[in-house]
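Continuing the series of single-chain predictions for the mutant panel. This is the parent chain; the variants come on the following pages.
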Amino acid sequence: MDKLSEEKIQTALKELLSWEFTKNLIQKEFTFDTYMAGIDFVNRIAAKAEEQNHHPDLEVGWCRVKVVFTSHDSGGVTERDIRMAKIVDGIVQ
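Parent structure:
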């Protein structure tokens, strides 16, 4: 899958809430009321990532989870990353 241009990424991000584009990746930090709510979120992301065969980098902290997508094989952000960001946003809604 081809890497998206910065213009296409910025256009796609307008449809996503609070995702940021930087250094060939998109990222967002989610906050939770409890640590275990964050862990539950990570497990739901993991299940969706397996279904889509596209896995994020995850950083887990106290009541927060940072989600990062990039397509390493394409050298940056692709449609797969945008699609997964939408899926992740849907998990918390």
